[in-house]
């Protein structure tokens, strides 16, 4: 399987690229990124690095480089507090994600062999909330935005009468770096945190095999 990975220089995205390289089910990785990747990763024969500045638009020349991709692991986003303001957070998290999903659905799905599905997995977060009017007492902006992305991605898939565009939303509780120390791992157990490489392996398994639910909660991710 050929897959697209975004957010390749971030915590989750870089782990996804590493684990895709190590996974025999993944034949090639299109690393869609603003910045060059680590030289050791970029040199892998399984990786094509595609520099892309504007994730709100996908010109034909770019989409032609992604030909043959059967899945996308979308890891652009994060928490609202990591952005300068809510408008920037919404643009990056909502607008960019949906623009990518629509572009891949329109341009890449028709190229797949008959009967093949394109699987789009969004790295969401625990407690994502679809109801935009529901009052939330903690992490409200993050949870509402991630919930809106999930909802609109599912609506995009539902509108596809061919059923060849599948959406999955992974909801990790907390993510530990690969080199997390003993103290961080112990604290992480209190809220069900998952090691980033384990998370990446779970996400890859979902796009390779599919999954019974569109929303994959943290407890399920820990078992994949």
Question: Could you explain how this protein is built, in words?
Answer:
Strand 1 (2-6), helix 1 and strand 2 form a beta-alpha-beta unit. 40% of the residues lie in helices and 18% in strands. The chain has a single domain, classed as Rossmann fold (3-Layer(aba) Sandwich). The strands form two sheets. The chain has a seven-stranded parallel sheet with strand order 3-2-1-4-5-6-9, with helices on both faces. It is of the alpha/beta class and 224 residues long.
Termini separation: 19 Å
Number of strands: 9
In CATH terms, the superfamily is: NAD(P)-binding Rossmann-like Domain
Strand percent estimate = 15-25%
Structural class: alpha/beta
Q: What is the third-level CATH name, the topology?
A: Rossmann fold
What is the highest CATH level, the class? Answer: Alpha Beta
Task: Categorize the overall geometry.
Answer: globular
Tally of DSSP helical segments? 8
The CATH architecture would be 3-Layer(aba) Sandwich
Radius of gyration: 17 Å
What number is the mean pLDDT? Answer: 95
Provide the number of structural domains: 1
Helix percent reads 25-40%
pLDDT under 50 segments (min length 5)? none
Strand order of the largest sheet: 3-2-1-4-5-6-9
Largest sheet: 7 strands, parallel
Please write out the topology.
Elements: E1 2-6, H1 11-22, E2 28-33, H2 39-42, E3 47-51, H3 60-65, E4 71-74, H4 86-107, E5 118-123, H5 140-158, E6 165-171, E7 175-176, H6 182-189, E8 194-195, H7 196-209, E9 215-217, H8 218-221
Parallel strand pairs: 1-2, 1-4, 2-3, 4-5, 5-6, 6-9, 7-8
Helix pairs in contact: 1-7, 4-5
């Amino acid at each position: 399987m050929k897959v697209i990975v975004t957010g390749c220089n971030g915590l989750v995205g870089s782990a996804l690229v590493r684990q895709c390289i190590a996974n025999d089910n993944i034949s090639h990785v299109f690393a869609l990124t603003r910045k060059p990747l680590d030289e050791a990763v970029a040199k892998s024969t399984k990786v094509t690095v595609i520099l892309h500045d504007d994730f709100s638009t996908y010109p034909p020349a770019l989409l032609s480089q992604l030909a043959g991709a059967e899945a996308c692991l979308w890891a652009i986003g994060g928490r609202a507090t990591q952005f300068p303001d809510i408008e920037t957070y919404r643009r990056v998290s909502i607008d960019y994600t949906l623009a990518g999903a629509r572009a891949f659905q329109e341009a890449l799905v028709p190229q797949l062999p008959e009967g093949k599905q394109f699987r789009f997995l969004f790295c969401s977060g625990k407690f994502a909330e679809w109801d935009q009017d529901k009052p939330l007492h903690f992490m409200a902006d993050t949870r509402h935005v991630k919930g809106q992305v999930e909802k609109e991605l599912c609506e995009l898939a539902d509108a596809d009468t061919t059923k060849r565009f599948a959406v999955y939303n992974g909801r990790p509780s907390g993510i530990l770096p690969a080199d997390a120390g003993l103290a961080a791992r112990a604290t992480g157990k209190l809220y069900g945190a998952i090691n980033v490489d384990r998370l990446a392996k779970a996400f890859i398994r979902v796009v390779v095999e599919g999954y019974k639910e569109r929303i994959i909660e943290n407890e399920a991710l820990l078992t994949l």
